[in-house]
Amino acid sequence: MKKLFFIAAAMLGVVSLSAQEKTTSSQFGIKSSVNMSSFNGKDIKDNDYKVGFSAGIYGHFPLTDQFAVQPEVNFTRMGGKYKDEVTEVGNATVKYKNKTTLDYIQVPVMFKYYPAASRFNVEAGPQFGFNMYASNKQQTSTYANNMVYTTEKKVDVKDDVKNFDFGVNFGLGYNVTDNINVGARYYMGLTKITENTDNGTQVGPDVKNHSFSFGVGYSF
């Protein structure tokens, strides 16, 4: 954990020093957002969105009147919901519903463009994620003899999830005031989140993260 924060702090510092050579109007701030996340992948047959959240800090460093770079360090809870294929056991039908929760320390580096030096901006940039927690809650419903039997279990799946996630963000933002900003962002994961065994076999479904988020920030 200490190494992650050291790396993130170093990235903020490097970008800050580089930007301050060009401008003195740099700002630091805090932000929070609500996200709707899910999984993309060939092994997900019937998926749905899961509500999550994010909170963190950022530095906003203008490069010119229209361009700026904004590195961030965020704690994000995301994941997804999906159903497994139905299985037949004797004269019974079994259906599975899964709800996966993933916690990350995420470090996006966003490059912002302000058209005509306006308060609106469009942004894009890479994002590095470090997984801190992973769990899966599975609901099993057995249909037999006109009856339904349902059970639930929650399992720690941290060992099945890769420690590192990488993707890209695209977003839109608006500076309501000099201190308050709002924005919407889409994250597209580019790496598979499930781990492989020693012999190369895939553990769990072959999926990638993706999410939509809506947030507000306050600059000091």
UniProtKB/TrEMBL annotation:
Signal peptide: 1-19
Keywords for this protein: Signal
Matching Gene3D superfamilies: 2.40.160.20
Positions of the Outer membrane protein beta-barrel domain: 19-194
Protein name: Outer membrane protein beta-barrel domain-containing protein
Species this chain originates from: Empedobacter brevis NBRC 14943 = ATCC 43319
Lineage of source species: Bacteria, Pseudomonadati, Bacteroidota, Flavobacteriia, Flavobacteriales
